[in-house]
Hints:
- The structure is a single chain.
- The strands form 3 sheets. This protein has a 5-stranded antiparallel beta sheet with strand order 4-5-8-6-7. A 4-stranded antiparallel beta sheet has the order 9-10-11-12, sandwiched between helices. The protein has a 3-stranded parallel beta sheet with strand order 1-3-2, with helices on one face.
- The protein is globular, with a radius of gyration of 20 Å.
- It has 14 helices and 12 strands.
- It has helices at residues 12-20, 32-37, 73-78, 80-85, 87-94, 99-104, 107-112, 118-121, 137-140, 163-169, 187-190, 271-277, 284-291, 306-325; strands at 5-8, 24-26, 45-48, 57-60, 64-68, 173-178, 181-186, 209-215, 222-229, 240-249, 252-261, 268-269.
- With 330 residues, it is α+β, with helices and mostly antiparallel strands.
- Helix content is 31%, strand content 21%.
- A hairpin with a 6-residue loop joins β11 (252-261) and β12.
Amino acid sequence: MHPFTYTKVSDIAGALAAGRRGGRYLAGGTTLVDLMRENVERPSTLVDISALPLGEITATAGGGLLIGALVRMAEAAAHPKVRATFPVISQALESSASAQLRNMATIGGNIMQRTRCPYFRDVTAACNKREPGSGCAALGGFNRTHAILGASDHCAATHPSDVAVAFAALEANVHLLGPDGQRSVAFADFLLPPGGTPHREQAVRPGELITAVEIPAHPRPLASGYLKVRDRQSYEFALTSAAVVLHLRDGVIHEAKVAAGGVGTVPWKLPAVERRLIGERPSRALWAEAAERAADGARPLEHNSFKIELLKRTVERQLRVVGDLMGDAA
C-alpha cells in the first residue's frame, strides 16, 4: 500500500473543500480499501465522510423515497418504508455481499463501486479501466463472467452492484452536490458504459459528493421483486439478475419496468421487454414472449454465450413471480 493522508470531516462544506483539493471520499470503505490493498487504487488523500448528515430515508410527495448516500445497505434493506413501497430494493440489497459488508457499506458507495473483473484487479494484466490505453485482457482471455450487453472493443467488464439494478428499473435519480452547486442525474445516465473511455465509470464531476438516491413515485398498486442467479447461493456476484416492477389496473399492465444485472457493463434496462408487456393482460405466455426479448442486442464473447439463455429464463421467472403478486392466477 502506498502512503496517503487521512482526514475526517464533520460537515458538508469541509467535505467539498477537501474534494476540490483532490481528496477521495471514504464512507464504509468496503471497496476502496480493498482496491488500495491490491494497489489498484492509489489515492493520495482520503476524506472520511461517515459523520456527514446523509444517513436518513424519507418519504417524498406522492409515494417516492429519498435514500441518503450514507445509509448502510443493511439499514436500507430493513427499513419499513423501503420494504413496504419498493421491496425490489430490499431484495436486491439482501442478496448482496455478506451480512458484515452490508452492515458497513453505504448506498452511495455501493453504486460507486468498481468492477470485480479479475483482470482489473490484477495489476499485471492489461486493463483499460485501470490504465487507459493498455488494452483489455478479458476480450481474449477467460470471459465467462463478462458482459454480453454494452461491451466495447476497450472493455467488457460488468458492473457488480445488485441494488443498482433495482435503481435502474425504478428509474431513480442521483443527487449530487459540488463546487457548482446541486444537481440531479438520472440513474440511466449516472453509470457510464465503457465506449472508448472505460476509465470514466460515473457521471460525477471532480469534487462532487453523492447526497442521496431518489426513487420517484410510481402508480399504485405496484408489485416488484429481484432475482439473482449466481454460481453459489452464498456471497457471490450475479451471472444474471432481473429487477421487475409492474403496475396493473383493471387486469391490464399499465407500467412495466425491467432491468438486468450481471450481463451488462452497467445495469441494463430492457425496453423491448417493457414494450411487449404494456397494455397486455398477464399470462405465462406473455411472460415467455416478453423474456425472449431480454437479450436483444447481445454480443457474447467466447466463454459467456450461455448468459443469453440464462438471462431470458431469469427475466421470465421474475416476471411470473411479480405477476403472481399482482394476482395473476396463470
